[in-house]
Amino acid sequence: DQQVKQNSPSLSVQEGRISILNCDYTNSMFDYFLWYKKYPAEGPTFLISISSIKDKNEDGRFTVFLNKSAKHLSLHIVPSQPGDSAVYFCAATRGGAQKLVFGQGTRLTINP
Amino acid sequence: SQTIHQWPATLVQPVGSPLSLECTVEGTSNPNLYWYRQAAGRGLQLLFYSVGIGQISSEVPQNLSASRPQDRQFILSSKKLLLSDSGFYLCAWSVLGQYNQPQHFGDGTRLSIL
Questions:
Q1: Which residue in chain A has the smallest CA separation from B10?
Q2: I need a surface site. Which of A26, A33, A52, B14 has the fewest CB within 10 A?
Q3: What is the pLDDT of residues B41-83, one digit of tens each?
Q4: Which of B34, B103, B104, B112 to mutate to test the interface with A (most CBs of A within 10 A)?
């Protein structure tokens, strides 16, 4: 049972434009959501998170939106830069359990 | 600042051989520790987690085991590797006992079974 899904395996965006990465989840008990960025041969790096009591969290060029009724979250990157090219994973957990459930990842490519 | 170290970075092992991957964390005490595996083209799957020395929880039945002999040391082992054990193994840590804290990952070990 895939509780966290990233339905787009890849996304290509022009430099300077907005990148929007999407993630859906099925478990309504999830209350904390995270986005990680991963370069090849490296571990994932934490980017930004959001608690279920919020619907938006912003950090510089990165904004995460949470729609609890749709069980959907998205990551917006504005403006997109070449260094943003990486695989992005969304993850979710519940009740402070710290046991993260990850999506399959979306490969973002920023074109000059 | 906190850092997490994993080694080796790359490992090629024959089927049936034993395995030991090590992870250590610096700059923090009493962390939660985790082992994940990423199979080719897939997301990260939690294998084991630990909230203290000698305390190991297994998430997925498999050919692997984990141990935590010291507060900031986490070891992933196998007595006999299978072809299906190939993958990218990641260790992570998080702050113990605090709600809604991210996990922080090491750079991983690429394990290939021949």
A1: A41
A2: B14
A3: 778 999 999 999 999 998 886 789 999 999 999 999 999 999 9
A4: B103
**CA–CA separation, B112 vs B12, rounded Å?**
5
Distances in Å between the Cα of B25 and the Cα atoms of A93, B104, B114 are 23, 10, 30
Residue B98, token pair as written in the block: 């605090």
Do residues A24 and A2 make contact, with C-beta atoms less than 8 angstroms apart? no
Give the model's pLDDT for residue A55. Answer: 97
Amino acid at B39: A
Distance, in Å, from the CA atom of B107 to the CA atom of B80, rounded to the nearest integer, reads: 24
Neighbours of A14 (CB within 10 A): 12
Q: Is A16 helix (H, G, I), strand (E, B) or coil?
A: coil
**Residue B91 scores a pLDDT above 70:** yes
Can you tell me the distance from the alpha carbon of B39 to that of A100, in angstroms, rounded to the nearest whole number? Answer: 16
C-alpha closest to that of A99 among B3, B89, B59, B68? B59
Amino acid identity of residue A24, one-letter, is D
Tokens read off for A50? 């959001």
